[in-house]
Amino acid sequence: MRDLAWPLLRPLLFRLDPEAAHHATLAVARRCPRLLGALVGGRPPAGLARTLLGRAVPSPIGLAAGLDKDAVALPLWERLGFGFVEVGTVTPLPQPGNPRPRIHRLPGERALINRMGFPSDGAEAVAARLEALRAAGRWPAIPVAVNLGKNKDTPAEDAHIDYARAARRLAPLADWLVVNVSSPNTPGLRALQAREPLLRILEATRGAAGGRPVLLKLSPDLEPEALAEAVDLAIDAGAAGIVATNTTITRPVARPELLPEGGLSGAPLFPLARARIEAALAAARGRVPVIGVGGVDRPERAADLLALGCAAVQVYTGLIYEGPGLVRRLNAHLARAGRG
């Protein structure tokens, strides 16, 4: 009964521009977290609890970065049953991102294409919002991670300064930080996955993080050898974990020539993401946890990634098509399958 409303509500939301629907949904989530949690959420089964990056999490299912970019709906995610949440991407200074329209739905493929370009309120505004939540006693009991990016107009050679600046402001409010050098929507960003710039960024971010764990988020479009090299470099530079993967510029769908530019997420991404996650796990060799993300839209896919060896799994686009009750269904399936 709890999932019957979404098939009725989704067609109404899909009549809106995707970004308008996104902001409308977050506005409701911000105002009514308890009501939404009561309607479609629920606590994860006790058997799913574990430790991730030194923090207790009630479930291995986390919210991926990109949905709550500016941490406007933070109290909701725990109530839906998430074990942890990753907000962002947050840039040091505010920036508008790319011109609209910049999100495109592919309903037949259960996918999205976005070319957002890191629209962000900026590190200071997001930090102030997080501080206000803490002061008001509304801080969630689950871990909160912050995904960091550079400003679009920052030269590549100064990228490490941007990441350090954002880390310095946000680290005291985060359980861990995630360095995002893998979005396809900021010019030149993915080139920062190369050895020298990546090393500078990780060293600068760790130096500014005040002891908070720093993770690296990688692209699914890296060839396995390059991905393995990036994983090794990250671990040698002190990264506490890997998030694999981001969106893809490939088009594993019908009629790809008709589609706009940007990063594709959702169901068609899963085979590619799974292959790169497997490569990341092999490269990590158990030295650090790997968080798997990309195309997880049903319980079997979450269970598959955990069986591969992922410490946790994140979802985003699956929520758009399956509704917020997806989190509860994922948790229930994992508990029945003994994935706790």
Characterization of the model:
By secondary structure, this protein is of the alpha/beta class. It has one domain: TIM Barrel. The chain has helices at residues 5-13, 18-31, 33-40, 74-80, 123-135, 159-170, 195-208, 224-236, 270-284, 299-308, 317-322, 326-336; strands spanning 50-52, 55-57, 61-63, 84-90, 103-106, 111-114, 144-148, 176-180, 214-218, 241-244, 263-266, 290-293, 312-315. The protein has an eight-stranded parallel barrel with strand order 3-4-7-8-9-10-12-13, surrounded by seven helices. Strand 7 (144-148), helix 6 and strand 8 (176-180) form a beta-alpha-beta unit. Helix 6 packs parallel to helix 7 (195-208), helix 8 (224-236) crosses helix 9 (270-284) and helix 10 packs across helix 12. 52% of the residues are buried. The model has no long low-confidence stretch (mean pLDDT 93).
Low-confidence stretches: none
Choose one word for the global shape: globular
Query: What is the string of helix and strand elements?
Result: HHHEEEHEEEHEHEHEHEEHEHEHH
Q: If classified by CATH, what would the architecture be?
A: Alpha-Beta Barrel
Helix content: 25-40%
Arithmetic mean of pLDDT: 93
Per CATH, the class reads: Alpha Beta
The chain-level structural class is alpha/beta
CATH superfamily: Aldolase class I
Question: Helix and strand layout, with pairings?
Answer:
Elements: H1 5-13, H2 18-31, H3 33-40, E1 50-52, E2 55-57, E3 61-63, H4 74-80, E4 84-90, E5 103-106, E6 111-114, H5 123-135, E7 144-148, H6 159-170, E8 176-180, H7 195-208, E9 214-218, H8 224-236, E10 241-244, E11 263-266, H9 270-284, E12 290-293, H10 299-308, E13 312-315, H11 317-322, H12 326-336
Parallel strand pairs: 3-4, 3-13, 4-7, 7-8, 8-9, 9-10, 10-12, 12-13
Antiparallel strand pairs: 1-2, 5-6, 6-11
